[in-house]
Amino acid sequence: MSDLDDFKATYFDECSELLTELEEQFIAIEAGERDADRLNAVFRAIHSVKGGAGAFGFSALVGFAHAYETLLDYVRDGRIELTDEVVTLCIRANDIVTDHVAAARSGEALPADYGMDEKNRFDALARGDAASEDDAAGEPDEEFDLEFVPVMVNIGGNDDDFPEIPDTFDALPMEGESGHWEVHFTPHRALYARANDPLLLFRELAVLGEMTTKAVLEEIPPLSDFEPFAVYCSWEITLVSESLTEAMIREVFEFVEGDCDIAIAQLGVGTPPTAEVKAALVHHEAPPAPAVAPINLLELADDEVAHLLDFDIEPPAAPVKVKAEKAEIAPVAVAVVEAKVEDAPGLSFADIADSIKPAPVAKVPLAPKVVIAPAAAPDTAPGEEGERRSLGVQSIRVDLDKVDRVVNMVGELVITQSMLTQQMDETLRTRYTELVRGLEVLAQTTRGLQDSVMAIRAQPVKSVFSRMPRLVRELGLKTGKKIKLETVGENTEIDKTVIEQLSDPLTHMIRNSADHGIESPEKRLAKGKPETGTIRLSAEQAGGNILIIVEDDGAGINRDRVLQVARDKGIVAPDITPTDEQIDQLIFAPGFSTAEAVSDLSGRGVGMDVVLSNIKKIGGSVHVRSQTGRGTRMTLRLPLTLAVLDVMLVKVGDSPYVVPLSSIVETIQCSRANFERVPSGGQVLQVRGEYVQVIDLAQRFAMTTTTEPESRFVVLCEAEGSAKVALIVDDIIGQQQVVIKSLEENFERVEGIAGGTILGDGNVALIVDVQSLKTSIIHKNAA
Amino acid sequence: MEALGLRDDLNDKSAAAAQNSLQLIAFSIGEQTYGVEITTVREIRAWNGATPLPNTREFVRGVINLRGTIVPIFDLRARFGDGQTTPTKNHVVVVMSVGDKWVGILVDAVSDILTVSRDDIHNVPEGNSIDTELLNGIVTHDSRMVGLIDLHAVVSGARMDN
Which CATH superfamily is B2-155 part of? Predict the structure, then answer.
């Protein structure tokens, strides 16, 4: 049932948006903005989540959301005061709803009593209050109150209002009038799966004679057991016509034979309807049960529906040409079809059409209750249609894969274009001025295209930043510290992939600041600092990078302790005295933690190394600076986009490699470089008084090189905040832009290689991972 | 001539193929014939060089650009422990999907499409672990032995682990 999966996917997308909105609303509410608009927004969001969940049968989610909604409703109309306690409860409830949604999405079951405490508290709050007024008002046990009222479906229809539906008894044949047929029509699931619509069959039947239809709704289960694609509805149809034969009726069902059960019985010519039939009809006249019928319309695209409804029929009895107008049918079910056709000449088929209209079903909260009659007149229809459309296209939901494909192709285009431009040497330039001009325009257009495509993927960092106030609040509560969070530059935009990778590192960094950085209120006062500590979270663009800075005004890194712990854990050899800056960087070492006790906040020693590895994964770097007693500042430098990388193309052996330009400090010819021997037999490079570790890439990558050592090159690299490293390559070919391709997509991670890229000549070049080359050397030395 | 015969063979068998038979792409490494299920094969292309990957085992010949995607190439001869193939333009890369990944297998030549019955697949005789590890089974076709390659096993263990 891929269609259903599509609907579910859309629902989950909506849910995540709604939940984000909830989060934002509550941040404002917590900050004191307790106006009705916010509460309404919260209420709407929860209601939408609940409604969709009901449609898909996520009963646990529905149950919880319902209790939550009831509480919100009471808060909204003032029956319950919005105290801090209630706000805290609501924030907790948001988490539970989120968990429920996540569980529904992954298909896992949460423990049956999950969220029960909160639910009971909602109920208690709601009941406690309601009890004082009126017992009935609370109704904590009430089933969720989605109500479905069967609505007439208009078949075809060419005019305005729905005519009054004739009393069923009037519709029954008059005594001695003609042949009276009764048809029991029970469609199977397959009938709908093949895009058949009972409505169309009924229209055809109606042509045969005077028709009365009754939907049999007893089978419809309660909403919680409701399966969107199951068939619960069948019909009893009576047809009255003088010249009607069973064969004629069968002919109508010809195309759906096998996909439905049909029982046809003649009740006798000229016989009045038996008391039994009348009774049955009376029975069905009773207030209709929630009417839900199979939703095959759901499967039809809008224009397909239009096509189905757009038909010409020449009824044999009453030769009136009927052209049904395009009816927009919301994804709802045809619930009860009750139609009557008189065969008096002159009466058109449209009459039946008018007596039938669509009924909204389970999707109610997601799709607004839509009962749209066929457009009144053909000439007004297109206008309305157009208007509706233009309102609808403010934004579209696009699969990220599709955007990625475009981004990748634009990346390739940029590279091909730059390759073409490079091919233009001076002679060509003077000879083909038109061509050159064309290439310049192409270059401009490609750049524009690249910017626009990147803009599609770019998102404000707000989506991550907005989760942090919540975190800080919780951290404050747990540690007993007073912390305030300031955010700056929330509207800075970064590539979506980068944003997604940002949430975890930021959480760790802020947690670290709150736990280790900010001191307790007493300590702060003693030091003459304000009682409330501040964590400042900012984002800004700097050239081709985005800087995300987490800064606190806490105690700063306790370097003595860090060094001691690092020595104890063997991260730093006892005979080495690192600089202050190097000590600061130690907090990113795997397994490093200075916390004396493992709290549930931090101290497990995973965390800051996760920050480093996550940031490295997206091509960024982390730098930390600390001033004792004044605070710590951690800077994340992130690439603006992951799609295109500026690189230097080099040669090692016969293979092309590329080194990210951002990490290159300078290049030196080996003949001019100052190499020195070290006891291990290796080399170090002296650059302006600094000694730098040397890595011969040919040796490291086990490539055979025939290049004379003198004519090789040194590429001096530096990653943010760490020591330099000198890579030796055989040749430097030039600078260019490349699109990063994953090696892991079809292979696996290769040490020392960050990925691959495709060069202008179609060959693959590997991207050198400077950072991992360095660390692997360190590991080797340690071993 | 042979191509025609092949196509007839395909048509006749296509109905039965759905049931119990298996279609294989057969290729050769030296004198030996091996096969993989035809549904896993994505394309067959001539050897046109590959960019070597450092820090990998000798049977990883490198990576190629397959319409914008980087695909690793495995040297089947080297994988079987017979030393690296010295590829020429006549050597063939069979691009296949293994799970959700695409890989290329370097072989000497692609020889045939075979239709075999599942019932005719024999177990690989116990003995050398390389055989049992890399082959899923053995079938006989025209009195030749065809080893069914276990692709998952072939592409695993590619990284050099220090």
Answer: CheA-289, Domain 4 (2.40.50.180)
